[in-house]
């Protein structure tokens, strides 16, 4: 089991990020879906413990009791290393994602119930705070878990990006928002001075029980999560002028429209989106 905490500082408020994240998830999903692969949204509905609809797991020790629940299936065949495609039977390269978004806290559980069953899971716990990534135990971990946790800071402006992920219009070190005046994120100390500011604390726990492959696959998944977080939050910032000013009602309408578009895209056209890194195999 590998446990890593990724910290991503962003030049926006926590309330702005709630809209920015949901907008960017909907936008990015369309870019990842096509040709039989991508994202299939099965459920997107409110949950509330006070109304008897309990989340599958206690959210942050029971501190959060209501929010939005989503259930998605990810069809990933061409996006995994060759050695897994050789070993795994047809149809097993699909994963189930359940998320309980009780913003500013969110818990996401990724599993493969058809094939790996209890031998594989990814748990992503996110807390969003109005600071610069200096809260040492944002998730309230016990001493044993803290001893296993590795902290990794992601700099969306300066961290290296895989050549396959580079997009000319997604460059935080060059982008300047017309609506807010924020950016570009120049130099290596922008996160120490930007205003407004917030940080995403993403605690990722990975377990893959497969003799001879456990360590290699767990490291591959954690590497992939870092890549996803880096690319996604670069887009979140560089799409500021697209999401700034939207309301949550706008977001829910966008999600409904996106689900319909994903259903159409999934089985048509060519495979789209994130490609494997050159060294993934």
From TrEMBL:
Residues 1-260 form the Phosphatidylinositol transfer protein N-terminal domain. GO terms for cellular component: cytoplasm. One of its GO terms (molecular function) is phosphatidylcholine transporter activity. It comes from the Eukaryota. InterPro entries: PI_transfer, PI_transfer_N, START-like_dom_sf. This is Phosphatidylinositol transfer protein N-terminal domain-containing protein. The lineage of its organism: Eukaryota, Metazoa, Spiralia, Lophotrochozoa, Annelida. The gene is 20213626.
